[in-house]
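Lecture 7 notes: from sequence to structure.

We start with a single chain of 129 residues. Read the sequence below before looking at the structure.
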Amino acid sequence: MSALIAEDELVHEVELVWLEDISRLDYVRQSLDRLPTRRGRPAYHRDGRMVGYALLGPKAKPSRSSGTFRRRVFWLLPHDRDTAPEGLYATGAPAEAVDARTLAPGRKGRKTERSEGGPMSSAVRGLLP
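Now the structure, written as tokens:
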């Protein structure tokens, strides 16, 4: 869940790779997954689809016990707003969802009016890149 991701867990991120045009998405779900490598496209084993993932720099250390790296993966489920606009998340958003335009390497992102199902305010538009 995004609420459980601390920015100090993201310090080794160097790039976010997007597999889709995020400007069309109101939100993406994010999670920290244990992956075998720092870089490259990870395998995806959830329902729905992977929308993006983080790449880690060379200073990122693997876990001593598992040898894996904790990397963010961004994803959507079949019942999310992009494919079911009148469905479960017509308003509101899942706990682990954030507005993709508020994400950057090392920054966990946040919810916005748009990610919650409302119109994006001019104040928020001014904060986005």
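The radius of gyration is 15 Å. Keep this in mind for problem set 3.
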